[in-house]
């Protein structure tokens, strides 16, 4: 189950890359910019600004879950089934209503990835699995990485590492680079903001370091969560001292994904303004550099 394949990406690993976005994540980060990636199943996205007055195509396709009240479209999301999703796929002429998520085989995905192999070869790029959490679909992740390596394609995975180790380990022989989120080392704060278990993540980091996996640490800097000097010190100390990280990217918080929450009809619980703290970003870069890591601020 995936929700996008993005070609010609230059921000998800070295060179020009094809990014395969797999659905499903075991975290519930308040600031998540891809909320449509969380569920392992399909989602309905609805943008009322694009909805045509008087149009009844979606109601005709799935009358059990779509209705109107005073010209306002009502979606009984809790009643949606696979049959409803199939009926609603491509039924809306304006894309006001769309189905997010599609089952694809490894063969179909690899066919798309292989189209751009000349660009990978020239730029040092390749395939990146992202999400969601790619390791939530461990068999598909391993298959795509293995087949890419066999085709001479560089491989990378973007992961929050909040999965059992047995989901990660099978992919390691076929993985060139791991782009791994290190959101916080404080267990209580991590759970409060992500609904997750920080120790699971930290333990996976330790196991990966022991296996010599090439990693770039990514730290999303979120207001009220970890965008402060104390948190940055603790995160950088763990990265440098406990797992011997060589590279760390600090990602200032932005709000580009807020509208997706409206499309999913769920509340957005993080700050509504981007992080504006140049002094803090400079501190993060300098402190990480002092710890012996190559540090970048990624906009």
UniProtKB/TrEMBL annotation:
Cofactor(s) needed for function: [4Fe-4S] cluster
InterPro entries (alphabetical): Aldolase_TIM (IPR013785), BssD/PflA/YjjW (IPR040074), Organic_radical-activating (IPR034457), Organic_radical_activase (IPR012839), Radical_activat_CS (IPR001989), rSAM (IPR007197), rSAM_sf (IPR058240)
Protein name (Swiss-Prot/TrEMBL): Glycyl-radical enzyme activating protein
Keyword Nucleus found: no
Organism: Dryocola boscaweniae
Superkingdom assignment: Bacteria
Keywords per UniProt: 4Fe-4S, Iron, Iron-sulfur, Metal-binding, Oxidoreductase, S-adenosyl-L-methionine
Keyword Cell membrane: no
One of the Pfam families matching this protein, by short name: Radical_SAM
GO MF entries: 4 iron, 4 sulfur cluster binding; metal ion binding; oxidoreductase activity
Domain Radical SAM core stretches: 11-291
Gene3D superfamilies from the UniProt entry: Aldolase class I
The family this protein is said to belong to: Belongs to the organic radical-activating enzymes family.
